[in-house]
TrEMBL record:
The keyword Metal-binding applies. It catalyses: 2 5-aminolevulinate = porphobilinogen + 2 H2O + H(+). Belongs to the ALAD family. This is Delta-aminolevulinic acid dehydratase. Mg(2+) binds at residue 244. Keywords: Heme biosynthesis, Lyase, Magnesium, Metal-binding, Porphyrin biosynthesis. It comes from the Bacteria.
Length: 335
């Protein structure tokens, strides 16, 4: 027998399987847990009444009119999901070069926010700050030639954040990746007396192909000219994410987020370890659709893969996950 083949001297005194032998023991030694308190549910909005329109690239996900969004919020609140995140579908005809609908206090997001706040006061409302649902070119900022203008965009983002907060939004989530936007929004919120509005910064947001289905859901996919690589991060980089997060914290973010999720769990883990901030991850549309598509074909055990994918975020150190599976997961966790 060679050295390598010889059993470890402690075997069988050490048997890793002892702790795994029965359910109560597995539960006893579990290092992490997943609960409904970890879930943030993104939903898509559309105009109309009684509208529940399937998003073709996201099996099981719908765009909802405001009344249906209120029903969804009621369902989420009944399951104790802490936060619902609102994303508007905007048809081509309502988009323009500057995304002016973003700052209209009567836009779809603001109307839905008011309606949900009135009907379901006990759920947190998160609103994205970025111009892409409203621009004709599909970019998150103002475009001059082929350049996304940073400082000029900040003004629009601040105005967008303010109309959303005035409509009742609890958590402002800048997803645009312009430099200095958290500071600009924080200063404007303080100046306007909105001292308790939380900011969850999309701090480390990558230029990712996994957003494909989302862009379809909000009506941006046909619109987008080029890509977002001059403002979103290069998937090759990890250290840079820590610099992004440090800046957003210094600028006044209350919570930070990493996006996408599962392919970027190394970043989630580093961010949590480095800063100890409330740290969130976004299981984005493409991740959802990969899993949901495989479930639909019968390739995955639905309940198990949903919970396993979400537990992975907890193990990496996330305090919560934005996930299109939130309602399904909450039902499973409550059962
Ligand atoms: C807007 C925004 C995007 C997502 C959230 N906010 C898309 C993008 O940056 O192109 C993606 C969410 C998802 O894919 O589920 N800036």
């Amino acid at each position: 027998m060679t050295e390598k083949q010889r059993p470890a001297p402690s075997f069988p005194a050490i048997r890793m399987r002892r702790n795994r032998k029965v359910d109560w023991s597995r539960r006893l030694v579990a290092e992490n847990s997943l609960s409904v308190n970890d879930l943030l549910w993104p939903i898509f909005l559309t105009e109309g009444n009684g509208v529940l329109e399937p998003v073709s690239t996201m099996p099981g996900v719908h765009r909802r009119s405001v009344d249906e969004a209120v029903r969804a919020a009621e369902e989420a609140a009944a399951l104790d999901i802490p936060v619902i995140a609102l994303f508007p579908f905007t048809p081509t005809g309502k988009r323009d070069a500057t995304g002016s609908l973003a700052t209209d206090p009567d836009n779809l997001v603001c109307r839905a926010t008011r309606a949900i706040k009135a009907a379901v006061p006990n759920i947190g409302i998160l609103c994205d700050v970025a111009l892409d649902p409203y621009t004709s070119h599909g970019h998150d900022g103002l475009l001059a030639g082929d350049v996304i203008l940073n400082d000029e965009t900040l003004e629009a983002l601040v105005a967008q954040a303010l109309v959303q907060v005035e409509a009742g939004c609890d958590i402002i989530a800048p997803s645009d990746m312009m430099d200095g936007r958290v500071a600009a929004i924080r200063a404007a919120l303080e100046a306007a007396g909105h001292t308790n509005t939380q900011i969850m910064a999309y701090a480390a947001k990558y230029a990712s192909a996994f957003y494909g289905p989302f862009r379809d859901a909000i009506g941006s996919s046909g619109a987008l000219k080029g890509d977002k690589r001059t403002y979103q991060m290069d998937p090759a980089n990890g250290d840079e994410a820590l610099r992004e997060v440090a800046l957003d914290i210094a600028e006044g973010a209350d919570m930070v987020m990493v996006k996408p999720g599962l392919p970027y769990l190394d970043i989630v883990s580093r961010v949590k370890a480095e800063f100890g901030m409330p740290t969130f991850a976004y299981q984005v549309s493409g991740e959802y659709s990969m899993i949901a598509g495989a479930i639909e074909r019968g390739w995955f055990d639905r309940d198990r893969v949903i919970l396993e994918s979400l537990m992975a975020f907890k193990r990496a150190g996330a305090d919560g996950v934005l996930t299109y599976f939130a309602l399904d997961a909450a039902r499973l966790l409550k059962a």
